[in-house]
Amino acid sequence: MESVGGAVIGREREQNVLSEFVTAPGGRALVLRGDAGVGKSALLDHVVDLANAHQHRVVRATGVEAESELPFAGLHQILYPLSSHIDQLDDAHRRVFDVVFGRGESSPPSVMTLGIAVLDLLSLAASPKPLMVVLDDGQWLDAASTEVCGFVGRRLTGSSVRLVVGLRSNVPSGFDTAALSELAVPTLSAHASEQLLDARHPGLDARIRRLVLDEARGNALALLELPPYVRGGREGHGPESVLGFTGVTLPQRLQQMYGARIKGLGDSVRTELLRGALDGVEAGSTAGHTRGTRYRMLDVDEAAACGLLDIDAASGAFVFRHPLVRSTVVQMATPNERRAAHAVLARLHRDDLERRATHLAASTVDPDEEAAAALEAAADSATLRGGALAAVAWLTRAAELSESHGERSRRLGSAAYVAGHSGLLGQAQQLIRSDTAPGSHDSPASVIASGYVALFEDGDVRSSQRQVFAAIESMRDEGVREPDETLTRLIDLLLAINQYAGDTAAWERTHELLAPLGDLVSPHSRIYQDAWGDVVRRGPGVRQRVERAFADRHRLEPWDITRLGVAAYHVDTLSQYRPLIQRSADREAETGALADAMTMLHLVMLDQIAVGEWDEAERTGQRSLELTTAHRHGLFVQHTRAYLGLLAALRGQVERARALQATVDAWARPRGVGFLTEITDAIGTTAALAEGDYEAAYLHAIGITPPGTFQPYAHQASRTLLDLVEAALHTGRAEQARAHALAAQHAGLPGISPRLALTTYGALAMTTADPAEADRMYQRAETHPAATHFPFELARVHLAHGIHLRHTQGRKAARHTLTLAAHTFERLGSTTWTDRAHAELRTAGAPSPASSAHLAALTWQERRIADLAAGGLTNKEIGERMHLSPRTVSSHLYRVFPKLGITSRAALRDALGKLSSDQNA
């Protein structure tokens, strides 16, 4: 403490800031940052005193280094005192907390989802009186908790909640990038140092006083602790010799001082201190809630008497006076003493899977299957909760403790597998190389690790494909009889490589290889086999199988969510699963399966493109590009650029689209990455259509698939159906256009996906010579239940339909349909298609709609929110549908009202109806 008689010495500036922080209206967050021992804790105590004086409720928590790898451990410590309020939240938010704290089986939430739930909980707790949350040693908070606290801290404005965090300057922390207001806590001035020293240690010998001031250099803890140490120096040595260790830092000297006190304690007291130090600080009563249980130090009054411990006023439990005391206790213990303490703590936490495994592993030296199995189970739990990085460490330790070489190899393989999916490609290879048994370099696990590294880093589909084929054939020939995790991983890797390669021969060989394996191939792998390869021929029923697989989502590991999401993309049902995929991407990008997070971002972007959220898709693509570039995943870098190029082409940004097309094609084509070269052909087709260069569009389109058929194992073949048909029609190739539309119908594309139903019916309408059939097909396309989920394709059908109506029924009959097309293209931001639709409107005898400028003022997202609000949905319901927080929905509506010239939600329906009437006039 640097206070005397309740006054904090030498901190007038800081006290003024903190006083304003506590008393000013509205919620806010503040970080106190300073060196160890500088006095942050005293200032936090001062904040608590101020908060109590102003009738705030105070919740205190302390980051614990021993818990820094346990997902959500810190958040639980912060929120546990507020747990009585959780039952007052709605079902959705209660389920969020159940998952985080191990009481439920739903999918783990994203930072945003959990952050919103925490904000609601804090606001509810602050309704009777303001709430102050005080977090000391925030640098030791686990990454997941830090992310949530940062999210919450940035959004407290307007609430009655305040958050203050103490951080140590020289320890990196997730709070470093949280963008919260900061207050630097420097060392005390010379005058304040003298005041504190004289107040707490009056009557010091002048020489000792001067020496302490020189050594402490304004560090409050040193000013308080050094005098007794110097005065009680070793017999026959002066005070200078006690402190005169060359090259020893002040924290080290303080630890030496604490060490001297610890050494003088009895054995039983040191044992109690060690158990407490290894398990973290007491966080209050946790009866019935195992995750909060801590070791409670007993019979340690001797340690408190010599200044090593304090008593927590709330719980009455002994707590360490300073983190340096805790670390000194651990450092002074022998390895055997630490292992014995960990064994006791493992028994204490027998009902907490992750905490028990951590202590059990630390207490064990020789191979122990019980400890290894506990660590493996903890790794599985961490993976499901977004803690794949912790899972790698636990699986590696489980391998070290395995009693048989087979189990050791299996666990090392699992560690390498999770490491590869976590973006730790080098570590994945090192883990496999550490398995030194003869022939281990050719083991299935090594093939899996090296295959993912080759694929992710450089898009090497050829050599990795050969190795995986050989490994699967080897396991088959060895007579595997039961479902096997390693075999499943090999199969899933082969299917991923095949998808990127897009090679017909490899896919056919894969089908031949997997067919006789029967139930040895998992149901999920069968979905991937059918969806990722040739969805035209193998896609019927995939949509329903994907839906059933996602129904058990709480058991899905991040790579399962990713792969099933890719399957959903191929059958155009991504929107159903985007909330889960978005949450998972946000969660895994921090401490989880990073490589899967990259693919999840691709999936989110693809769905944003599909449903017309193109600005959001651009932002998602840029985020993905930054992430993939930073981690040097060459394949994903180019994959992201391909989608950005496709989006640019859709928007009419032709020059940018072609630049990205050239970059991706130059990288992918020599490597044989057919998945990406098909996308570059699709970029070329889309860009040419945007420019009205239909001959070039046709040549690009037939590079993907010939007219009248759908090239096997070409994923863009069905996706570019409308492109090829329109390009063919505009270049006088009506026969080829009709043949292609009929091929889509005969292949049963409408039964595979809703998007393919829309485009097939549209293509049939565009190519028939029978006006009545055209009307029927346009009607089927435009009234399809899912048509509005694909606004760009629907607008193209509207445009073609309008032209057809002008030719068959006259100009007036065409205007409504052409207006729908024009407004959709305008909202999407597809400039060239907008111009084309307006030109058709003028040809139909109508000027560009007078209300177009008003409607264009609404972004696509604002228009969707306005439509949903006019339909009676609440902000919460709109947020769930559009994957936004209710607060974001509210802010969008406040921007919409003045654009529409209204002041209330009740006026939305009439305003939007008037717009539609104006547009259809």
From TrEMBL:
Record key words, sorted: ATP-binding, Nucleotide-binding
Pfam families: AAA_16, GerE
Cleavable signal peptide: none
Domain HTH luxR-type, residue spans: 851-916
InterPro entries: AAA_16, P-loop_NTPase, Sig_transdc_resp-reg_C-effctor, Tscrpt_reg_LuxR_C, WH-like_DNA-bd_sf
Name this protein carries in UniProt: AAA family ATPase
Organism this protein belongs to: Streptomyces cinereospinus
Organism lineage: Bacteria, Bacillati, Actinomycetota, Actinomycetes, Kitasatosporales
